[in-house]
Write a structure and sequence with these properties.
The chain is of the alpha/beta class and 272 residues long. It contains 10 helices and 7 strands. The chain has a single domain, classed as 3-Layer(aba) Sandwich (Rossmann fold), CATH 3.40.50.720.
C-alpha cells in the first residue's frame, strides 16, 4: 500500500472535505493527524476531532486527534510535536482549514476580515513553516492547499474581495512553496473543486439545502488528493489543480457517483 506508514496532517479535518480526505487516505493505511478546533458536537456543523479519528481508525488508518486553532502559533508547534512523538515524522500537509465570509467591503466587519486573514493566510503559512523540518525528511513529501486558480476577472475580484484575496494568497503560498522547496524534493500544489461541495459551509452560509442538492460530495476532493499524493513529489509541483482534471488524468471521466442528487444540474464553485 503506497500510503502505509506515511503520516498526513490535515487541518480542518473534523468534518466535510477534511474528514473525507482523512478517511480516504486511512483506507490506504496512512497515519492521519486530525487537526481542528471542534471537540464538542455542534448540531449545525456535525463532527469533532474525536468522531473523525474514530472513523479514520475504522477505515484502517491510525489517527491522532489534536485540538488546534491555527491562529495560535504555539498550538501549531504543540500539534507538530505531538504528531512527531506519535508517528515519528510528517510526510504530507494538507491545508484545508479556512474561514469564509462572502461580503462586500462595507459589510465586512474588521473582525471578520482579520479572521479570514489569520486562518486562511497566516495559519496556513505557519502550519507549513513548523512542519517543514519533518517534510524535508519525509517519504515523498507533499503540501496540498485547498485554494483556487488565481482568476483576476472582475466577477471574482469585485464580489467579496476580503475573502477572495485570502484564497488567492493561499494559492500564491502554494506556488511560492513549489519554487522554494523544489531543490528539497517537496511538492506543493493547490487543489479546488469545479463545483460546489456539499459541506456545512454550503448548507449554512451559501445556499442551504437547494445548493447542496446541486453539489458534489466531498469524496471527489478526497479521490483527487489520493491521486496527487501518489505522484512523485519531485515531478508534481507548482500546479493549481481542479478536481475534475486530476481525475480525468487518471482516466476517470464518469463523475456521476459524486453527485449528491444523481442527474441534478451542478453549480459551479467560486473562482472557476
Amino acid at each position: 500500500m503506497p500510503f502505509q506508514n506515511r503520516t498526513i496532517l490535515i487541518t480542518g479535518a473534523s468534518r466535510g472535505i477534511g474528514k473525507a480526505m482523512a478517511i480516504r487516505l486511512a483506507k490506504e493505511g496512512a497515519n492521519i493527524i486530525i487537526a481542528a478546533k471542534s471537540v464538542d458536537e455542534d448540531p449545525r456543523l456535525g463532527g469533532t476531532i474525536h468522531s473523525a479519528a474514530a472513523e479514520v481508525e475504522a477505515a484502517g488508518g491510525k489517527a491522532l486527534a489534536v485540538q488546534v486553532d491555527i491562529r495560535n502559533e504555539e498550538q501549531i508547534q504543540q500539534m507538530v510535536q505531538l504528531a512527531v512523538e506519535r508517528f515519528g515524522g510528517i510526510d504530507v500537509v494538507i491545508n484545508n482549514a479556512s474561514a469564509i465570509s462572502l461580503t462586500p467591503t462595507e459589510q465586512t466587519e474588521s473582525k471578520r476580515f482579520d479572521l479570514m486573514q489569520s486562518i486562511n493566510v497566516r495559519g496556513t503559512f505557519l502550519v507549513v513553516k513548523h512542519c517543514l523540518p519533518y517534510l524535508r525528511k519525509g517519504k515523498n513529501p507533499h503540501i496540498i492547499t485547498l485554494s483556487p486558480p488565481i482568476n483576476l476577472i472582475p466577477k471574482w475580484m469585485g464580489g467579496h474581495i476580503a475573502y477572495t484575496i485570502t484564497k488567492f494568497n493561499m494559492s500564491m503560498l502554494a506556488l511560492g512553496w513549489a519554487a522554494e522547496f523544489k531543490g528539497a524534493g517537496i511538492a506543493a500544489n493547490a487543489l479546488w473543486p469545479r463545483t460546489t461541495i456539499d459541506t456545512a459551509a454550503v448548507r449554512n452560509l451559501l445556499g442551504g439545502e437547494a445548493l447542496a442538492k446541486m453539489s458534489r460530495t466531498p469524496e471527489i476532493i478526497a479521490d483527487a488528493v489520493y491521486f496527487i499524493l501518489k505522484k512523485n513529489a519531485s515531478q508534481c509541483t507548482g500546479n493549481t489543480f481542479i478536481d475534475e482534471e486530476v481525475l480525468a488524468g487518471e482516466g476517470i471521466t464518469d463523475l456521476s457517483k459524486y453527485s449528491v442528487v444523481p442527474g441534478a444540474q451542478l453549480y459551479p464553485d467560486l473562482f472557476v
